[in-house]
Design goal:
The chain is of the alpha/beta class. The protein has 13 helices and ten strands. The protein has helices at residues 5-16, 18-36, 73-83, 86-103, 106-109, 119-122, 127-138, 151-155, 158-171, 186-192, 217-228, 241-250, 266-269, and strands spanning 39-48, 54-65, 69-71, 112-116, 145-150, 174-180, 197-200, 232-235, 254-255, 264-265. An eight-stranded mixed beta barrel has the order 1-2-4-5-6-7-8-9. α1 packs across α2 and α4 packs parallel to α7. The longest helix is centred in the N-terminal third of the chain and has 19 residues, at 18-36. The structure holds ligand C2E and calcium ion (3 copies). One calcium ion (CA) binds next to β6.
Length: 279
């Protein structure tokens, strides 16, 4: 039998089981994708519920794979986190989002650009320095940048997280608590962690079968809670006109979702900016 390099690899992969082999392929491809610049950011608009005005964008990473096409972050972020690649990838996302904020003159327009932060990034000692570097490099004010953390990120080590949050807030960037309500101790966190924005997870918006008032109780409660703590509340996953009307009635300040705008490539997302051509 022939034993060239390729066959040896194939035999080895087969022995590991398909899943492990596929994962190793993905990891190798990810590494290459970073070098080749295959990642892109899409931007999803966030809107003032009362006026309909654009208030900012959330940056969402996608992988433009040369063979498999556009790959969603749910497929590769976990692999990037396990392999250490999330460091350089997260750094690229941060700098690219800041660069875009500058190009869109987010400063003058009073818009925020939100960036998702992986727990692995957040736990890095020099993360605040990386953020400061990205702001300086792009030349934008820190108020333009909103960092989105999930409850689990903060809960891994609350005292270490508090210190990291102090450092970030000292820079002047905003902190959003993402997917609020889906974690283990949402309420106690809110009492102890200083944040600026509360993003209510989309699972709290009523589905087509949730016709009675009880389906809305938690949504209403979270909007009130955020308002009472003087936080900017963003409802995620606004998919229908009914959702939008409900949020308006509840006094929820900000909304994000497919009904308002899908995540779009920068060039298309730019069309959401008011009078970009005249300014
Ligand atoms: P997320 O931070 O909760 O982002 C919102 C996700 O919900 C996005 O999926 C978005 O496309 C989707 N979405 C927005 N509006 C609607 C809606 O009305 N209905 C429904 N059903 N979905 C909606 P996406 O882009 O696939 O991102 C998935 C997750 O991947 C994000 O969830 C975030 O946790 C993570 N992610 C995305 N970009 C990054 C990144 O740059 N860094 C890190 N660490 N994680 C990221
Ligand atoms: Ca998010
Ligand atoms: Ca979310
Ligand atoms: Ca999520």
């Amino acid at each position: 039998a022939k034993h060239d390099g390729k066959n040896a690899v194939r035999t080895f992969s087969a022995g590991m089981g398909d899943e492990t082999a596929a994962r190793m392929d993905l990891e190798r491809d990810l590494r290459e994708a970073l070098r080749n610049g295959e990642f892109v950011l899409h931007y999803q608009g966030q809107f003032d519920v009362a006026s309909g005005a654009l208030t900012g964008y959330e940056a969402l990473v996608r992988w433009q794979h040369p063979v498999h096409g556009m790959i969603a972050p749910g497929r590769f972020i976990p692999v990037a986190e396990d392999s250490g690649l999330i460091g350089p990838l997260g750094d690229w996302v941060l700098r690219e989002a800041c660069r875009q904020a500058r190009a869109w003159r987010a400063d003058e327009r009073g818009l925020t650009i939100s960036v998702n932060v992986s727990p692995v990034q957040f736990d890095t000692a020099d993360f605040a320095q990386l953020v400061q570097g990205a702001l300086q490099e792009a030349g934008i004010r820190p108020e333009c940048l909103m960092l989105e953390l999930t409850e689990s990120t903060v809960l891994r080590d609350v005292s270490a997280a508090s210190e990291q949050l102090q450092r970030l807030r000292a820079l002047g960037v905003g902190i959003a608590l993402d997917d609020f309500g889906t974690g283990q101790s949402a309420l106690s966190l809110l009492r102890h962690i200083p944040i600026d924005q509360l993003k209510i997870d989309r699972s709290f918006l009523p589905g087509p079968d949730d016709t009675d008032e009880s389906a809305q109780v938690f949504l209403r409660l979270m909007v009130m809670l955020g308002q009472a703590r003087k936080l900017n509340v963003v409802a995620e996953g606004v998919e229908t006109a009914e959702h939008q009307a409900l949020l308006r009635e509840m006094g929820c300040p900000t909304a994000q979702g497919f009904f308002l705008s899908r995540p779009l490539p920068a060039q298309q997302a730019q069309a959401l900016l008011p009078d970009m051509n005249h300014a």
